[in-house]
Specification:
Chain lengths: 111, 116
């Protein structure tokens, strides 16, 4: 089975500083990897995905993610964080017909 | 606007009672999914359906049931057999039903179920 892990429960950064949310994966074959964001009492919003090709994937709201095959990682990044980026972030991998999600990372951006 | 509508937003269940959560989509998506979200555990798949009149159990199907009579609708029933039903339930859909699809899933805004 395919799986992802998010090693940090929480990430705290100051507004304007770079933001990184970590994700590692364990798959057989080529992975389809996704990042989602969730605001309180809302559903998940799709940010970006990696299928194949360029290792740097650009997504919504200024987010990007770097796929690293040797380190089996797919870290989410934003060069300059905003207070409005405070939310719960999920990494996911396509596993047969479904998505398998990490446990989530809570991001807090302080003003 | 196309999207996924879940209702109600909040639901309360008495002991021994079955409740049904509604999920409707107007995205013309083939595949639909139900997830359960508990704090610190991410999302766990309950059931999924790749096509009308067909559905499969996910990782935590015990105590739940579903139907898929229409492409647009995928209701979830939480039965009295589910001993710990308090959770946030999320419905999702995606455009493609084939294995290993690279299409993202689109989510509704969830239903929060609590036990009285």
């Amino acid at each position: 089975a395919q799986s992802v892990a998010q090693p940090e429960d929480q990430v705290n950064v100051a507004e304007g500083n770079p933001l990184t949310v970590k994700c590692t994966y364990s798959v057989s074959g080529n992975p389809y990897l996704f990042w989602y964001v969730q605001y309180p009492n809302r559903g998940l919003q799709f940010l970006l995905k990696y299928i194949t090709g360029d290792n740097l994937v650009k997504g919504s709201y200024g987010f990007e993610a770097e796929f690293n095959k040797s380190q089996t990682s797919f870290h989410l990044k934003k060069p300059s964080a905003l207070v409005s980026d405070s939310a719960l972030y999920f990494c996911a991998v396509r596993d047969d017909y479904k998505l398998s999600f990490g446990a989530g990372t809570t991001v807090t951006v302080r003003a | 606007d196309g999207g996924i509508t879940q209702s109600p937003k909040y639901l309360f269940r008495k002991e021994g009672q079955n409740v049904t959560l509604s999920c409707e989509q107007n995205l013309n998506h083939d595949a639909m999914y139900w997830y359960r979200q508990d704090p610190g555990q991410g999302l766990r798949l309950i059931y999924y359906s790749q096509i009308v009149n067909d559905f499969q159990k996910g990782d935590i199907a015990e105590g739940y049931s579903v139907s898929r009579e229409k492409k647009e609708s995928f209701p979830l029933t939480v039965t009295s057999a589910q001993k710990n039903p308090t959770a946030f339930y999320l419905c999702a859909s995606s455009i493609a039903r084939r294995r290993k699809s690279n299409q993202p899933q689109h989510f509704g805004d969830g239903t929060r179920l609590s036990i009285l």
